[in-house]
Specification:
mainly alpha
Length: 84
């Protein structure tokens, strides 16, 4: 019974961690979007770059950041597994 309670507590903690992580990721995306819209996009529009190209560049940067994060998470996971 004690193991069941510990498992239940662990799942609730993971739910809270997931909710917090989702909030952090949403804030990071919003900040990136705002900085892009107010810093990079106007400069690119001044250079007469089409809107669809500006959006493509934003998506490219977001994809590069995502790939970096996934690669880093994989490295951390591998280092933890090798330490066990």
């Amino acid at each position: 019974m004690r193991l069941v309670r510990q498992g239940d507590t662990s799942l609730r903690i993971q739910d809270v961690c997931l909710a917090l992580l989702q909030d952090v990721l949403a804030e990071a995306y919003a900040t990136h979007r705002i900085s892009w819209e107010f810093a990079a996009a106007p400069r690119l529009r001044d250079e007469n770059i089409p809107r669809n190209e500006i959006e493509r560049r934003f998506k490219l940067q977001a994809d590069q950041a995502k790939n970096f994060a996934y690669d880093l998470a994989e490295q951390i996971k591998q280092s933890q597994e090798s330490a066990e």
